[in-house]
Amino acid sequence: LGCICNVTYESDCRVVVDLSVPCEKPGPRVFEGFTVGFHPRSWEIVYNGFTQLGYEKSHLDFSFSTEQTHVTLYMTAIASVSTLVQKPIIKVLPEKGLEVRLSGSGATGTPPTTLSPTMLILEWTCQEVRHAPYEVNVTIPIEGYEPVQFFLAKMCERRQRGWAIFGVLSCIFFVSTTLFCCAGFIYKTRVEGIDALPGMTVVSACLEIASGEDINAESSWEEKKYGSI
Length: 229
Prior knowledge:
By secondary structure, the chain is α+β, with helices and mostly antiparallel strands. It has 2 domains: 34-156, Immunoglobulin-like (Sandwich); 161-201. Helices cover 23% and strands 31% of the residues. The chain is built from 3 helices and 11 strands, in the order E-E-E-E-E-E-E-E-E-E-E-H-H-H. It has helices spanning 161-192, 200-211, 218-226, and strands spanning 3-11, 14-20, 35-37, 46-47, 50-51, 70-76, 89-93, 98-103, 118-126, 130-140, 148-156. Keywords: Membrane, Transmembrane, Transmembrane helix. It comes from Ricinus communis. The chain crosses the membrane at residues 163-187.
């Protein structure tokens, strides 16, 4: 299991302990220079290969709200070893209730660099209401190193699919109503003429006033109704 090799007291509040821990697998363990954050030049989640506090496991204080339907993560790595980064693996706990889809250049395995960060977009949809947050385990395999692993917490206080169905039905109702009104106008125009359209009488009166004709004159009325005699 290992042993304590040396203990050095540098001050009253500082102690340095040298440990000897056997490794089951030889080789480097931490993929240095690798970062994951919410912006191209940030590292809130992973810094220098180490998962940061708050994302090493699911935390309610670091959870995403129900209204947030997606989150974009930016990954960077040293260019000389960026090809070692492989496609991320997603695991949701519990397995049912939250649908998660991956997209972006990071989901296809594109090598990330400091000059050209890759984007990993997580689109999630709440299918079942749950009082506790869902745990989204993101594992990024690194060839020759230990995989980088972190957790994202997602709240689902209500279902989001119902709102999507409501939006689709509202759109269908709006389009159907518009087509019905247009068909009614076309029918009335062909049967009763253009004067049957709403507002055409007012428009005709305004045009006659602008042209200088007396709409109350008998000759003008007879010419309009019966044509010129």
